[in-house]
Design a protein that fits this description.
The two termini are 41 Å apart. The protein contains 12 helices and 10 strands. It is globular. The longest helix is centred in the first third of the chain and has 28 residues. With 371 residues, it is α/β, with parallel strands linked by helices. Strands 1-2-3-6-7-8-9-10 form an 8-stranded parallel barrel, surrounded by 5 helices. It has a single domain, classed as TIM Barrel (Alpha-Beta Barrel), CATH 3.20.20.80.
Length: 371
């Protein structure tokens, strides 16, 4: 009986060591292996937790960004809640599931830009219209692009004296309930900034305005030892690179790259080409994660590039190339339906977020086994 006990103990220890070695190996290859998606609505919660347990964890995903925005029953500003929103108890279920699998959970609320979508103003500017950078631009009944107002998404005015009292209340509360050490502020595709008709921002340098907002959020988070993550497109010169006005900046915010704190993590997204701008961010002293969406072939190329970057640079630079993150730009419900084959768009072919997710983490597994 004693021999049998020691045999089982030895085998258990051997298995534990093997798992630890495997984990160390993949961590060395790609420190961050992430997944970003809209936070599930309450009715999707159980299916999403199943997805965490059965799909994210086995693929060794170690970072989950949930785009919460107003999908939470905020106590600090209940007037900003969505009509259907996650409760504290439901968020704690997500926290527990992620903790069981050593997945770092990071909430996102879109700050600065993305305060509207199509013909609808989202909660912050709907409830606090005086925060609007461009109040003279009215939301159309039917949205089209391009349009005479240059309206893509509304922004709040970063210099409005009341905006951060509200915004930081939301940020602090969501970070507390998610028990997180980081926060994603979005800050992508900011087209309205430093507008000529804004009484506070007119005539100011857009790069300084953008950097000022990044650093203000970063410093607020740092007071409680939390880190800031943002999307990287506003820090890329869209004209000089030819990357364009969506994945890069045409309104001169790109110079903010030299003005923001170096401990801000950049999520570098490119969906139409596997542009190698991760090198640019790392050279500027910033940690960077490459983010594909729905092109499986590009996800493979981007993963191979990230690993190549980590192998071919100095030790100082290597630590800035942090890894890969799959992004999903539908709600959690439609993605889960697509992933589990409940509702599939036959016209999409291979270019879907679920297929990209499978391909990305299949390539990570292949490369980790090969190295």
């Amino acid at each position: 009986m004693t021999r049998l006990y020691f045999l089982f103990a030895f085998l258990a220890n051997l298995l534990s060591c093997s798992l630890a070695i495997g984990q160390t190996k993949i961590d060395s290859l790609l420190p961050i292996r992430g997944f970003c998606i809209a936070a599930p609505q309450p009715k999707q919660l159980d299916t999403f937790i199943k997805f965490i347990n059965e799909e994210l964890a086995p693929r060794q995903v170690n970072t989950l960004i949930l785009r919460v925005d107003f999908n939470y029953e905020f106590d600090s500003h209940p007037e900003l809640r969505d009509s259907i929103a996650l409760s504290k108890r439901e968020v704690k279920k997500l926290v527990k599931a992620c903790r069981q699998h050593n997945i770092r959970l990071i909430p996102q609320i879109n700050l600065l830009g993305h305060q509207s979508w199509a013909n609808k103003t989202t909660n912050l500017l709907r409830v606090y219209p005086d925060f609007d950078e461009t109040p003279q631009v009215k939301m159309p009944e039917k949205y089209v692009w391009p349009n005479p107002d240059g309206l893509y998404c509304k922004s709040y005015c970063p210099l409005h004296p009341g905006v951060h009292g509200v915004v930081f209340g939301l940020v602090d509360e969501i970070c507390e309930v998610f028990e997180t050490d980081a926060f994603h502020a979005g800050m992508d595709e900011v087209f309205y900034i430093g507008h000529e008709k804004c009484p506070r921002c007119s005539g100011r340098d857009n790069a300084e305005l953008f950097a000022g907002e990044v650093n203000l959020i970063r410093n607020h988070l740092a007071e409680k030892n939390r880190k800031l993550w943002i999307w990287g497109d506003r820090l890329i010169d869209g004209k000089t690179t030819g990357i364009g006005m969506w994945e890069g900046s045409f309104n001169n915010t790109y110079r903010a790259i030299d003005l923001i704190a170096k401990d801000v993590t950049i999520c570098d997204w490119h969906y139409e080409r596997p542009d190698q701008t991760a090198v640019y961010f790392a050279t500027k002293g910033l940690s960077v994660i490459t983010c594909p969406w729905r092109k499986p072939g590009f996800a493979v190329t981007q993963t191979q590039d990230m690993i190549k970057f980590r192998k071919s640079v100095t030790p100082v630079m290597k630590e800035r190339f942090q890894g890969m993150m799959q992004t999903v730009w539908s709600g959690a419900g439609p993605f889960l339906d697509e992933f589990y084959g409940v509702k599939v768009n036959p016209d999409a072919g291979e270019d879907t977020a679920s297929n990209c997710f499978r391909t990305l983490f299949g390539e990570i597994k292949r490369l980790s086994e090969a190295n």
